[in-house]
């Protein structure tokens, strides 16, 4: 993730009113993600090790994993404020969690090979440009144990769209459908998307995972704007 994208993402998600409105009004299908991810996570062993790339304030992980008997959770995010909120949220996990503030790719590189049972990535990988995305996905495959799961939710580019057209569609939706946000909040979100979003198509996402040895197990959520998948390391 380049420095501008890191800075822009940090600025956006430190505006907590925007983030909370997105979740509260389900603008990015977080309810569906919780349901589908939690179902997949029933496979995580009791000694399971979990990595969350772009954990934010921990809302998604907390709702997905709170009934899962895992051993260790590592959450990574570029926002220090998000990490602080996640630490408060996860207190009941009694030392089973570690949080790191920093670039997702750099933190992922420090994880040993074949040491992780589950990798979560919700709305984070699209902030990387194409070749950097491929590198992140390759490291996800590297750290997963055989049979380990990669649950990936992200903004989606339609097959007929280029990046610019996809970004224009997303920003139009923010301006016209996110009515719970103030005009200023909508424009802040638009600025973030225009500077930091590089969405890929469903075909690109599934092929990129397959190329590094992760097979598509299930399409979990897919609508005209967002997609989520469960991949398994073969």
SSE order: HHHEHEHEHEHEHHHEE
Query: Quick one: CATH superfamily?
Result: Vaccinia Virus protein VP39
Largest sheet: 7 strands, mixed
**Terminal CA distance:** 27 Å
| Strand ordering within the main sheet | 3-2-1-4-5-7-6
- Rounded mean pLDDT is 93
Structural class of the helix and strand makeup?
alpha/beta
Please name the CATH architecture.
3-Layer(aba) Sandwich
**CATH first level:** Alpha Beta
- Tally of DSSP β-strands: 7
| Radius of gyration from CA coordinates | 17 Å
For the record, the count of structural domains works out to 1
* Proportion of residues in extended strands: 15-25%
Name the helicity range.
40-55%
CATH topology-level fold name: Rossmann fold
